Amino acid sequence: MNDVLDLKIKATQIRLDLINMIYESKSGHIGGSLSSADILTVLYYNVMNVDPNNPNWEERDRFILSKGHSVEAYYSVLADKGYFPKEELNTYCKFGTRLIGHPNNKIPGVEMNTGALGHGLSIAVGMALGAKMDNKSFRVFTLMGDGELAEGSNWEAAMAASHYKLNNLIGIVDRNKLQISGNTEEVMSLEPLEDKWKSFGWDVLTTDGNDIEKLLDTFNAAIASANDKPKLILAYTTKGKGVKFIENKANWHHRVPTEEEYKAAISELQELMEVYLNEQNIK
């Protein structure tokens, strides 16, 4: 799927699905899921080489959701891609479901259990190094939250990735500048973040993580790069993107909307969907 408008429609549907999941289950992390929806959409519909009909295909690209609490967006994408029936999203966080509140590798398409923050990059480094050792051509992607970068394990992994010249590894940071405790720069300052990654030997690209077209260009540039460095995409996003009253508010990190808020959020996204569908019909 290469058309930017088609990807915008997909990302909007992902947002609708994840809000439904969180409201119906009365559980979930809405802010970070909304901020990462565009990144996941571009990855799964344009960038990564995967086969939902053969989820364990040896040559597949690997993806690790290090910020495992944004699982609602992840499950929505996997279901839409056909890894499991979309109706199963209705069971999210309910008794007996396999769609629990953090990724579980018993679910088709999920490579690794995550949720304890700060470990996704280490796992991705191991996978990328294994690919090099086995002369495999697949790439490894991992999506990290900016709040979890306070964990020292990330920087040990970053150092190892550059040491072993893992140019088959692409890390993405969802830089929405908010975490459960508030603004990242007040909780544990990360800046200058771009310079930090560069100092660890990474090739750093920056982009608007909620702009489909810019994300496409940035991923294409990262993949086309011929150097031997691991790649880091610093994706500047808005926490809660797509729902105005949720955007840029730390208290929506882990909060379930009321019935009134739910209806307002769905209405706003449905209006946006109508705009995109009308554009598609004109084309």
TrEMBL record:
Residues in Transketolase N-terminal domain copies: 11-261
A matching Pfam family: Transketolase_N
UniProtKB keywords: Metal-binding, Thiamine pyrophosphate, Transferase
Keyword Ligase: no
Keyword Metal-binding: yes
GO molecular function, a single term: transferase activity
Essential cofactor(s): thiamine diphosphate
Entry's family note: Belongs to the transketolase family.
Protein name: Transketolase
Taxonomy of the source species: Bacteria, Bacillati, Bacillota, Clostridia, Thermoanaerobacterales
